[in-house]
Backbone:
């Protein structure tokens, strides 16, 4: 990602509606499928500035890997101590023994060879371990936002499921999320494309007034009551849970 994205993420992850609600939903998903304790090793691949990892660091042993020194320095500020600058295929898990779960949250879309990185995750995990991932949905929603964040693609739920099945995983759960705000987001994307507003926006996030930020946090946050209990057929993002058998 561009360096400005790391700086923005670190400043906004505790306050911006998308980060707050998204992280709570994904934290709830991890806790649903994984029995977290101090001996549970969770590898957060592409940990970025540590916003998500910091939510679980008191529940289990969180290990973060990323290829950006900037991102890792911010993760360290958040209290994540087990940090490694490396690709997943080069990660040496021997010092930790077993990796009980891997999270790749809004990471796979940044990697050109998505099939290979999910296979790398399968190789790192032991039998019985889980992988939880999230990705952006629908290529037709592609925007300047994807370019700033250096995405290669957006996914349909079938496409991301195929990536995991090809790696050897058993699919346990998948769903769209960020669904309540889906239709307003679609309208905004198309209006921006028609008016050219999309090309003028180089901010990593769309700034909103405080009252809108608070409102969106509550609306998006409602979905933690649904995920991962039910599967939602549409949404701006996709979450997938898979298991190595």
Residues:
């Amino acid at each position: 990602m561009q360096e400005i994205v790391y700086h923005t993420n670190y400043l906004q992850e505790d306050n911006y509606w998308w980060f707050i609600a998204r992280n709570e939903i994904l934290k709830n998903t991890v806790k649903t499928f994984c029995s977290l304790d101090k001996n549970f090793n969770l590898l957060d691949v592409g940990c970025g500035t540590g916003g998500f990892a910091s939510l679980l660091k008191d529940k289990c042993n969180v290990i973060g890997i990323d290829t950006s020194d900037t991102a890792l320095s911010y993760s360290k500020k958040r209290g994540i101590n087990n940090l490694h600058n490396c690709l997943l295929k080069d990660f040496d898990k021997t010092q930790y023994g077993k990796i009980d779960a891997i999270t790749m949250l809004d990471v796979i879309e940044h990697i050109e060879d998505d099939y290979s990185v999910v296979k790398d995750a399968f190789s790192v995990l032991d039998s019985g371990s889980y992988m939880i991932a999230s990705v952006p949905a629908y290529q037709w929603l592609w925007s300047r936002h994807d370019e700033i964040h250096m995405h290669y693609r957006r996914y349909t739920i079938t496409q991301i499921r195929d990536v995991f099945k090809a790696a050897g995983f058993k699919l346990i759960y998948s769903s769209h999320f960020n669904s309540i705000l889906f239709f307003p987001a679609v309208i905004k994307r198309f209006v921006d494309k028609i008016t050219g507003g999309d090309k003028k926006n180089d901010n990593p996030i769309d700034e909103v007034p405080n009252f809108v930020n608070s409102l969106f946090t509550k609306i998006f946050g409602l979905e933690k009551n649904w995920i991962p209990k039910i599967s939602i057929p549409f949404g701006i993002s996709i979450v997938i849970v898979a298991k190595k058998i």
User: Anything to note?
Assistant: The two ends are 33 Å apart (CA to CA). The chain has ten helices and seven strands. The mean pLDDT is 95.
